[in-house]
Amino acid sequence: MTQPDLTSTPVRSHAGPSEAGVLVINADDWGRDRETTERTLECVRRGSVSSVSAMVFMEDSERAAATAREQDIDAGLHLNFTTPFSASRVVAPLIEHQQRLSRYLRRHRFAQTVFHPGLTNSFDYVVRTQLDEFRRLYGAAPDRLDGHHHMHLCANVIFGNLLPSNTLVRRNFSFRAGEKSVCNRLYRGVIDGVLRWRHDLMDFLFTLSPLEPTERLQRIFSLAGRFAVELETHPIDPEEYRFLAGGEIFRRTGDLAIARHFVVSRAQRRRSAIRTRAAVQ
Predict the structure, then answer these.
(1) Secondary structure class of 204 (helix, strand, coil)
(2) If you placed Cys at 127, which of 22, 162, 213, 217 could pair as Cys (CB 3.0 to 4.6 Å)?
């Protein structure tokens, strides 16, 4: 695999989040395996990734947590209900409960939208155990949460109030008018509305890919000049890694600074939320 030429790529210095808006580039799957951690770490060092979402009970979770604490990398919890835990020591009940959830959530595409009363205890156990493990590894409770395959937004988690209150939680993806069906947008709006009662949300969420057409990312960067925008990335993907570690991201963002951490003040989010509502009315 061709690697980007990192020696000739300047490291971008960043200002903190402005009052006008903020661009946070967050890398998922921190700690999933050594390669994922190392690629993400390279992007963090280059200044092209603001923060990470950390998996626990995975093969590189321990080392990744130590690295994050040593290097002051902003880490939130990446809840995992669907990918088998790969750490060498995982208790049998956790494996059994997660397997039960994975079978259900992967059964059909709408499974996550239906509250399953028979899985209440399993969801509670798997969430609580991952929260406890994050505290052990990182020395503090997470103040930010999201989910592998976005399953933190499934009905059992949201309507079971399993996510700690007053935390920042990843919202649903943002779409332009006409990109999704009315029912799809309505459901996502309901879930985001429920989240806002107990949690802080960013104004917009997008994925880094697709990188083309260039107009897509330019629209996102334009929004980040006025709103709090999260851009989700997976540096294990070769194309995304080259884009971030090779410096192309800085050529695309121009004068727009990438946040150094996933830190957006609540006051700023409140102001941004007001502007978001005004913009869509």
Answers:
(1) strand
(2) 162
At 206-261, the pLDDT tens digits run 999 999 999 999 999 999 999 999 999 999 999 999 999 999 999 999 999 999 99
Cα distance between residue 112 and residue 225, in whole Å: 33
Cα(1)–Cα(113) distance, integer angstroms: 39
Q: Which two tokens stand for residue 236?
A: 């294990």
Neighbour order of strands in the sheet with 204-207: 168-169, 144-147, 75-79, 51-54, 22-30, 228-233, 204-207
Residue carrying structure tokens 């989240």: 195
CB 199 within 8 A of CB 210: no
Give the torsion through C-alpha atoms of 140, 151, 163, 33, to 10 deg: -10
- Is 106 within 8 Å of 100 (Cβ atoms)? no
Q: Is 1 helix (H, G, I), strand (E, B) or coil?
A: coil
Residues with Cβ < 8 Å from 50, sequence gap 6 or more?
23, 24, 25, 26, 74, 258, 259, 260, 261, 262
Beta bridge partners of 77: 54, 145
The type of residue at 60 is D
Q: For residue 93, what are the contacts with CB-CB under 8 A and spacing of at least 6?
A: 125
Task: Say if strands 22-30 and 228-233 run parallel, antiparallel, or are unpaired.
Answer: parallel
What pTM, to 2 d.p., does this model score? 0.86
C-alpha to C-alpha distance for 172 and 175, rounded to whole angstroms:
9
Regions of the chain where pLDDT drops below 70: 1-20, 176-182, 263-281
Q: Select 22-280's CATH number: 3.20.20.150, 3.20.20.370, 3.30.56.10, 3.40.50.300.
A: 3.20.20.370
